């Protein structure tokens, strides 16, 4: 493990509609402890001295972003998102290249809907991967017993969970390698749900760094209820 934390770019895909949340606006704009979820998700990066700059991918007609305080932050650039999350990330990487960022620069991609990233986890990821040839991601080992089910929702098998982890974000890769992997896997129509899956598709093995399990992605209403409860009991 390296002692020095590398400098990095942050990319925040925030162009999703939040269909599973079924709220009156995309979930990244729902409130949590007096600020939007998106502002919390950006905050951990904006507070970090290693940040070179941040790119946020937004729906082209996003009416909410301009009213956030951080919209005026000169360290933040805005690009248009795309159809899938991978398209949104790719647009941000294209922007970074156009700005002169180097192929070997580290890029950390973090979900806009993941507002509870701790500084400790961010520092751990940066330190553990500083000298890694591939990069990696925060992740959490599966805790519950896992079932494979049939079409009728009946358990047919209990899956060995010892080698199963849940992929979280940030995911940390070199700009050039991530750009190539995402672009090539999109052209090949591969099933890419996160940056790691693109790098895996390209034949590399990202490292999993164990993070806190409360760095959850807000996906359904109960996730936000849980975070709001936590926020009121442990003021951050
Ligand atoms: N995202 C994006 N561009 C897309 C789709 C998703 O930037 N075309 C972003 C979301 O804004 C979110 C992150 O990717 O921050 C993770 O995606 P997810 O949790 O699936 O968010 P949504 O797609 O908004 O939610 P849902 O799938 O329920 O519609
Ligand atoms: Mg989605």
From TrEMBL:
The record marks 20, 27 as: Transition state stabilizer. One of its GO terms (biological process) is isopentenyl diphosphate biosynthetic process, methylerythritol 4-phosphate pathway. Its EC number is 2.7.7.60. The keyword Transferase applies. Pathway: Isoprenoid biosynthesis; isopentenyl diphosphate biosynthesis via DXP pathway; isopentenyl diphosphate from 1-deoxy-D-xylulose 5-phosphate: step 2/6. GO terms for molecular function: 2-C-methyl-D-erythritol 4-phosphate cytidylyltransferase activity. Transmembrane segments: none annotated. It comes from the Bacteria. It catalyses: 2-C-methyl-D-erythritol 4-phosphate + CTP + H(+) = 4-CDP-2-C-methyl-D-erythritol + diphosphate. CDD domains: CDP-ME_synthetase. It holds the Pfam family IspD. PROSITE patterns: ISPD (PS01295). Keywords: Isoprene biosynthesis, Nucleotidyltransferase, Transferase. The record marks 161, 217 as: Positions MEP for the nucleophilic attack. Belongs to the IspD/TarI cytidylyltransferase family. IspD subfamily. PANTHER family: 2-C-METHYL-D-ERYTHRITOL 4-PHOSPHATE CYTIDYLYLTRANSFERASE, CHLOROPLASTIC. Catalyzes the formation of 4-diphosphocytidyl-2-C-methyl-D-erythritol from CTP and 2-C-methyl-D-erythritol 4-phosphate (MEP). This is 2-C-methyl-D-erythritol 4-phosphate cytidylyltransferase. The gene is ispD.
């Amino acid at each position: 493990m390296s002692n020095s934390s590398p400098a990095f770019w942050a990319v925040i895909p925030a162009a999703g509609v939040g269909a599973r949340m079924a709220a009156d606006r995309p979930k990244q704009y729902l409130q949590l402890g007096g600020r939007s979820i998106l502002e919390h998700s950006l905050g951990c990066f904006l507070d970090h001295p290693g940040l070179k700059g941040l790119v946020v991918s937004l729906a082209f007609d996003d009416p909410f972003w301009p009213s956030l305080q951080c919209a005026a932050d000169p360290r933040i650039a805005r690009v248009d998102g795309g159809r899938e999350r991978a398209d949104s990330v790719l647009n941000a990487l294209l922007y970074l290249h156009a700005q002169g960022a180097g192929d070997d620069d580290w890029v950390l991609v973090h979900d806009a809907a993941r507002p509870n990233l701790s500084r400790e986890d961010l520092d751990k990821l940066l330190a553990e991967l500083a000298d890694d040839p591939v990069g990696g991601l925060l992740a959490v080992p599966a805790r519950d017993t896992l079932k494979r089910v049939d079409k009728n929702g009946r358990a047919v098998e209990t899956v060995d969970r010892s080698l199963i982890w849940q992929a979280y974000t940030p995911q940390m890769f070199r700009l050039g390698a991530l750009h190539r992997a995402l672009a090539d896997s999109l052209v090949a129509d591969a099933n890419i749900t996160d940056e790691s899956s693109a790098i895996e598709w390209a034949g590399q093995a990202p490292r999993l760094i164990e993070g806190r399990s409360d760095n959850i992605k807000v996906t359904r209403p109960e996730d936000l209820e849980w975070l709001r409860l936590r926020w009121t009991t442990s003021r951050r």
